[in-house]
C-alpha cells in the first residue's frame, strides 16, 4: 500500500524477558504447550536466561500470577498456557471464562502483551491435537504472538 504509513512488529526483540505462566492441571498436555512456547522463543533468538517458567495449580490461578509477574516489571511479555477440558458439569465454563477474562484484564491494565495459550476444549483428543500434533501447538502460537506484540509495542513507542 504506497503512501500509507504502516506499523508492524517482527519477531526480533533483543533483551526482552518473558514469563511463561503454566497451569499444572492436565499437566500431560500442558508440558507440551510449555515446550512449544520455549521452542518458539528460542528459535527466534531468545535465550533461556530471558525466560522464566512459573507453575500454578490450574487455569483459574493463571491470571493472578500473571498480574503479579506483570507488576514486577521484570517481563516484557507473558505467555499463559494451560488446558481446560470440559467435564460433565458447568465447571468448565467458570474456569475457562475466568481465565480468559482475567488475562485480558492483566494485558489491558498492565499494558503488557499476554499470549493466550490456554486450551479450552471439549475432549482430551482435541487437547492432544492442539498440543503439538495435528492442529499445531497453542503454546508455540501464543509465544510467537507475544514476540510480535512486544516488537510492535516497541515500534509504537518509538
Ligand atoms: N478442571 C480444570 C481445572 N480446574 C482447577 C482450577 O483451575 C483451579 O485450580 C481449582 O478450581 C482451584 O482454584 N483447571 C485447569 O487448568 N483445567 C481443567 O480442566
Ligand atoms: C474443566 C473442568 O473443570 C472439568 O475438568 C471438571 O469436570 P466436571 O465438570 O466433570 O467436574
UniProtKB/TrEMBL annotation:
Q: Which pathway does this chain act in?
A: Cofactor biosynthesis; riboflavin biosynthesis; riboflavin from 2-hydroxy-3-oxobutyl phosphate and 5-amino-6-(D-ribitylamino)uracil: step 1/2
One Pfam family assigned to this protein is: DMRL_synthase
Return the GO cellular component terms, semicolon-separated.
cytosol; riboflavin synthase complex
Q: Which UniProt keywords apply?
A: Riboflavin biosynthesis, Transferase
Q: Which InterPro entries match?
A: LS, LS/RS, LS/RS_sf
The record's catalysed reaction(s) read: (2S)-2-hydroxy-3-oxobutyl phosphate + 5-amino-6-(D-ribitylamino)uracil = 6,7-dimethyl-8-(1-D-ribityl)lumazine + phosphate + 2 H2O + H(+)
UniProt-recorded Gene Ontology molecular function terms: 6,7-dimethyl-8-ribityllumazine synthase activity
**Protein function:** Catalyzes the formation of 6,7-dimethyl-8-ribityllumazine by condensation of 5-amino-6-(D-ribitylamino)uracil with 3,4-dihydroxy-2-butanone 4-phosphate. This is the penultimate step in the biosynthesis of riboflavin.
For this protein, the record's HAMAP family field holds: Lumazine_synth
Q: What assembly does the database describe for this protein?
A: Forms an icosahedral capsid composed of 60 subunits, arranged as a dodecamer of pentamers.
Q: What is this protein called?
A: 6,7-dimethyl-8-ribityllumazine synthase
UniProt source species: Plasticicumulans acidivorans
Amino acid at each position: 500500500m504506497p503512501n500509507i504509513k504502516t506499523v508492524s512488529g517482527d519477531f526480533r526483540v533483543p533483551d526482552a524477558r518473558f514469563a511463561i505462566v503454566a497451569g499444572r492441571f492436565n499437566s500431560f498436555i500442558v508440558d507440551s504447550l510449555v515446550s512449544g512456547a520455549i521452542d518458539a522463543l528460542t528459535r527466534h533468538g531468545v535465550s533461556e536466561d530471558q525466560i522464566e517458567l512459573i507453575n500454578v495449580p490450574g487455569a483459574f490461578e493463571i491470571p493472578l500470577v500473571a498480574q503479579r509477574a506483570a507488576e514486577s516489571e521484570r517481563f516484557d511479555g507473558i505467555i499463559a498456557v494451560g488446558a481446560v477440558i470440559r467435564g460433565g458439569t458447568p465447571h468448565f465454563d467458570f474456569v475457562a471464562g475466568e481465565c480468559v477474562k482475567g488475562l485480558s484484564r492483566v494485558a489491558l491494565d498492565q499494558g503488557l502483551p499476554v499470549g493466550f495459550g490456554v486450551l479450552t476444549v471439549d475432549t482430551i483428543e482435541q487437547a492432544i491435537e492442539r498440543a503439538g500434533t495435528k492442529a499445531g501447538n497453542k503454546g508455540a502460537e501464543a509465544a510467537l504472538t507475544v514476540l510480535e506484540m512486544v516488537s510492535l509495542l516497541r515500534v509504537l513507542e518509538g
